[in-house]
Design a protein that fits this description.
The protein is an alpha/beta fold. It folds into 2 domains: about 1-225, 3-Layer(aba) Sandwich (Carbamate kinase); about 305-450, VC0802-like (2-Layer Sandwich), CATH 3.30.2130.10. It has helices at about 15-30, 45-60, 60-80, 90-105, 110-135, 165-175, 205-215, 250-255, 270-275, 330-340, 365-375, 405-415, 440-450; strands spanning about 1-5, 35-40, 140-145, 180-185, 190, 195-200, 220-225, 245-250, 280, 290-295, 305-320, 345-350, 355-360, 380-395, 420-425, 430-435. A hairpin with a 3-residue loop joins strand 12 and strand 13 (about 355-360). It is globular, with a radius of gyration of 23 Å. The two termini are about 40 Å apart.
């Protein structure tokens, strides 16, 4: 059995959804088994839902809610009409959403818990639409089901929840009565122990697919995207970027962490746990080989670097304190302050009297409060925005002498200055910090150095 996950663009139009249905039918014909189908919301719907929640909280009249609801409803009716399916499929969920937005409007507040409730409607609606389309194509056993009704239980960290360890066993048990069905499961969403709907972060449907795959011990997790696989660099930036045939789990995890949008950063964890291969495939060109991700690395001495990836809109925080020289416990106190403010650190370098850290937290109030607490520990705190973490990743780096020199020489030749440099003990990545505005120049220089174009 396999898991087939379809992203927002793959289910973004009637034609695209029919193409996905054909891929499902092909899989059934080839393997003789029903796959588990995991779907994202239709493209752009999650953004529309978030916007509707914000408008509901700050709007002075219900007309704004009606306008937001009309936009969301029309997006789904467009899909249903194009598939010649009845609009009634969406009406119950749309009515529930409308009532929820009115409630937010009356209390003039939208909490993370309510954001999760609102955004859950995207996957709940797309899964119903997908299952109805399959039934219309003759698959009478097709059924939409919410992930939380299949044992997907998370913690209560709304907007970025994580599955509980018991979730894998819960899913395996909950699946047994549905084993003969063609299930269409909601990605992205779960429920906590209190029964509140949670979401597992943007692009979290990949993570959902991996969790279901691990729980059911499937043969393969297929992630169907609108790109031909994991690329050597962002194809919107580097037109000559090309797909990679194979990656190791470790390489893919590094790429996801440092900004590659093809996979959710947590996707690899459940797959590694069960040693299940992950394949990134192209919805609009299913014959393309895509990228296969497995436990074993494939090393080509000619290409020690597999990919150039970047994570933009970072914040650089420089902390200087003469007291840290020879002072035990300083770093523990520093990290405790970040933990207290729920700010995640992505990159860190130190010297005798200073520490430089990066985070993707851009909230002004949070940063101001963090700075206030850091001043008690340091003599100087400086915050700089609009930064970018850029990384080169590849298992071949372990066996290649002079790679750092090639990397830094290429970046220097582009006129870009490095503000921080870091290399992990795994030796499969080199990361450094530049300005957002310098991303194109640095990426072009690196791609030319390592891939010849």
């Amino acid at each position: 059995m396999k898991v087939m996950k379809f992203g927002g663009t793959s289910v973004g139009s009637p034609d695209a959804m029919n193409r996905c249905a054909e891929l499902v039918e092909r899989e059934i014909k080839l393997s003789g088994k029903n796959p588990i189908i995991v779907v994202s919301a239709h493209s752009k719907v999650t953004d529309k839902l978030l916007d509707a929640a914000k408008k509901a909280a700050r709007s002075s009249c219900e007309a704004d809610i009606d306008a937001a609801m009309e936009t969301i409803a029309n997006r789904h009716y467009e899909i249903l009409d194009g598939l010649k399916l009845p609009r009634s499929i969406a009406e119950k969920n749309l009515a529930e959403l409308r009532d929820l937005l009115r409630g937010i409007h009356y209390v003039k507040e939208v909490t993370p818990r309510l954001y999760d409730y609102v955004t859950s409607f995207g996957e709940r609606l797309s899964s119903k639409c997908f299952a109805a389309m399959l039934r219309a194509r003759g698959h009478t056993n097709a059924e939409a089901i919410n992930a939380y009704d299949m044992g997907f239980v998370t913690d209560s960290k709304f907007m970025n929840a994580r599955p509980l360890p018991t979730t894998y066993d819960s899913i395996a048990e909950a699946y047994k009565p549905h084993a003969s069905k063609l299930l269409v499961v909601t990605g992205f969403i779960g429920k906590d122990k209190n029964g509140d709907i949670t979401t597992i972060g943007r692009s979290g449907s990949d993570f959902s697919a991996a969790i279901f795959g691990a729980a059911l011990k499937v043969d393969e997790i297929q992630v169907w995207k609108d790109v031909p696989g994991v690329m050597t660099c962002d194809p919107s930036l580097i037109k000559t970027a090309r797909p990679l045939a194979r990656l190791s789990f470790e390489e893919a995890s590094e790429l996801a962490y440092y900004g590659a949008e093809v996979l959710h950063p947590s996707t690899m964890v459940p797959a590694v746990m069960r040693e299940i291969p992950v394949r990134v495939l192209h919805t609009f060109n299913p014959e393309a080989p895509g990228t296969t991700i497995t436990t074993k690395a494939e090393i080509d001495p000619k290409y020690p670097i597999k990919c150039i990836v970047y994570k933009e809109d970072q914040v650089l925080i420089n902390v200087r304190s003469e007291r840290m020289l020879g002072m035990e416990g300083f770093m523990a106190r520093l990290f405790a302050i970040f933990e207290r403010h729920h700010i995640v650190i992505d990159m860190i370098t130190t010297s005798e009297v200073s520490v430089s850290l990066t985070t993707n937290t851009t909230d002004e109030a949070k940063l101001k409060s963090l700075t206030h607490d850091l001043v008690d520990l340091a003599s100087k705190v400086e915050i700089q925005k609009d930064k970018c973490i850029l990384a080169v990743v590849g298992e071949g780096m372990k066996h290649s002498v002079g790679l750092a020199a090639r990397t830094f020489k290429a970046v220097a030749s582009s006129g870009v200055s490095l503000q921080m440099i870091s290399q992990g003990a795994s030796e499969i990545n080199i990361t450094f910090l530049v300005n957002n505005s310098e991303i194109p120049a640095a990426c072009h220089a690196l791609h030319a150095e390592f891939f010849g174009a």
